[in-house]
Structure formats: structure tokens, C-alpha cells
Amino acid sequence: MRLASITRDGRAVPAVVAEHGVAAVEDFAPGLPADTMELLDNKLWPEVVASAEQATAEIFTPAETATFTAPYLRPHKIWGIGLNYADHAADLSESAPDQPASFIKGDHTIIGPDEPIVIPRQSNRTTVEAELGIVIGRYCRNVSEEEALDHVWGVTTILDQTAEDILRMNPRFLTRAKNFPTFFCFGPELVPMADVRAKFRSLDEIEVTTVVNTDERRSNVVANMTHRPGSLVSFHSQMMPLFPGDIISTGTPGAIVVADGDVAQAIVPGIGTLTTTVKREA
């Protein structure tokens, strides 16, 4: 069972996604918080699952009839990881760094599935980058790499955007190049670690693919990351506390330049597919 947000009467509400459909949490557990990020709490999620499993079948509707939005809009922070695959580093004539090349994105960048990515008027070369997202599930500070994944709630699919021409002017312009509105698309589902471990022997097996218009694609597997998920969680927890709902976007196998009218996807088999369109700012 997975966690998501769907729109209902003009508002976003938490929902669970099961093999037999989608159900709003308020329909089977009205006493639980009406905020998806709050349900990442380790004590609340088992209650959500137990209530959903006891819910009647008519509460669930086909997934294709639901309108998914970003799972939540106000994480404490979003960490992005640059150049985490050697192949992508080569695209930018860079080498993969010995320590994570991380940066922070503001929550104003967040959009959900089918909300358009907007190429800003300041950029003539904007890229989309599919990434595996790590969602923190409990307070995390100074944890070892071995215990890091115990603090992870689950994973999700991400499209992270870069105004690459701005970045190429000067590598110190990374924050500027990464923080235009609509430059962080995630969802539609959050997949709990229990489900991930049931599908994969290791996170290393997960494949991430950037796709534009079905014909341009760049793929790689987590095993080829320079800094893998457990290492990233541990590294950033040494720097500052991580809170439930914080996201670490683990880096892309390859960026693809987009133009007005393109369709962009992040495809992670066994985890999900995130799809949206691209438009140029008027």
C-alpha cells in the first residue's frame, strides 16, 4: 500500500493507493490528520494501513479516475545531489565529486503530476532530470550509513529541473539555476520501504530513466551512483537534522533539454512513473 495526495472538491487530501484502487484517508479513517506529510509518522502509517485493509471495497475507486497532485507542499527542506552518476557528470564536462555535491531547493519549486514545468524567460537551455527521491520518515541526526535507511520512510519519483545555461555561466550559480518555480516535480506515489524491500533485494537494483517525448531517454541504476542512498542520508544528517517529509533527490542518470510542448517523464520500474508537460514562460 502506498501514500499519495488526490484532489477532492478543490483541495488536496491524503489517499492510499492499493492494487484494487485509490481511497481518500478521510473516507476510512476520518480521525487521522488531513495532511499527507503528517502521515509519514512511523506511528500513524501502520494505523492508516490497518484501517485501509478493513475498509469496504466501494470506498476504493480506479486509480485512473483520481487526480493526483504533489504528495505534499511544505517539507522542511529538499536536498538535491548533483553529478552523482559519472555519466551525467561527463555531460557537464565534470568529474563525480568525492563528497556529495548537494544543494537546497525551496518548496516554492514543488509541483505534482501533470502540472506543467515552466521554462523561465531567463533560460534558453532548461533540462529535466529523472531522479529517485528518498523520503525521510523520522528525525535523523548524526546517523551512520548502516543505520541511515532505518530513518527513511520510503521513495518516490522526481523530475528535477536545471536552467543549465545559467549554471554554465558560473558553477556558483547553482542555487539560482535550480530554484525557479516548477523546478521540482514529485509523486504521484510515496512507496514505503517495506514495499521497496519486497520488490528489490537492494536499492542498488532500482533503475531510473529520464524520458522526453518517449524517444529521448537516459537510464542508470542506483548501484552506479557515486554516493548511494544510505550514504547520502548519513552525510546530510551529519550536517543538519533531517525531519519527516524531508526529501533527498539522489541525482539523475542523465539530463535532457526540453522545449515548449514536450512531455517529460521519470520512470522507475517497480516504483512509479511521473509524467508532466513543459511550457515556456510567456
Task: Give a nutshell description of this structure.
GO terms for molecular function: hydrolase activity. This protein is α+β, with helices and mostly antiparallel strands and 282 residues long.
Q: How helical, in percent, are the residues?
A: 10-25%
User: How many helices?
Assistant: 8
Instruction: Report the CATH topology name of the largest domain.
Output: Fumarylacetoacetate hydrolase, domain 2
The count of DSSP E runs of length 2 or more, i.e. the number of strands, is 18
Q: How are the SSEs placed, and which strands pair?
A:
Elements: E1 2-8, E2 11-18, E3 21-24, H1 25-28, H2 44-54, E4 68-69, E5 78-82, H3 86-91, E6 101-105, E7 110-111, E8 117-119, E9 126-136, H4 145-148, E10 152-163, H5 164-169, H6 174-178, E11 184-186, E12 189-192, H7 193-199, E13 207-212, E14 216-221, H8 229-239, E15 247-249, E16 255-257, E17 263-268, E18 272-280
Parallel strand pairs: 5-15, 7-11, 8-18
Antiparallel strand pairs: 1-2, 1-4, 1-12, 2-3, 5-6, 9-10, 9-15, 9-16, 10-11, 10-12, 13-14, 13-17, 17-18
